[in-house]
Prior knowledge:
By secondary structure, the protein is an alpha/beta fold.
Amino acid sequence: MADTWLIxxxxxxxxxxERTRHNVGQLVVDELASRRxxxxxxxxxxxxxAETWLRPGAHKLVLAKPNSFMNVSGGPVAALARFYATSPxxxxxxxxxxxxPFDTVRLKTGGGxxxxxxxxxxxxxxxxxxFPRVRVGIGxxxxxxxxxxxxxEPFAPSDRDALALMVGDAAxxxxxxxxxxxxxxxxxxxxxxx
Length: 194
């Protein structure tokens, strides 16, 4: 029987937040669903999910977008983990990361939350920080701009092309992590670009 991976894109619900920096994790999960021709449906775990496969016959993927606000993402993630009987080492959380430059993707398992309240809440709800993460760089705002305002703003029109490439790169990172493991994915996605 194929193993099940829960791939969670963190973000805020509703059209007001769809294209904001804080919702880049959901953009990545949307890309994974789009690649497979899947659509999301409501789930009793307070999320929208799309069930699919990494490729036919290998690794079931449950793509999920919590309906809760970012800072209380843990409840839906824990509910989905129980429903699909998925252990933390098979729960990939995709989220925005201020401390990584825009247009950069990094992967890790465990460690601190780096001030990311969504990641903090997921770790609390799961009872462990030891789950894989695909961290999508959004960079920090220039000057004295408030970080809370920055993450809730849409990406700039001038970032659109780079954003599409970064979302694709992050989706590739999720697929590589599931199929080949964390270290193999890091070797590809942490390597300097030519």
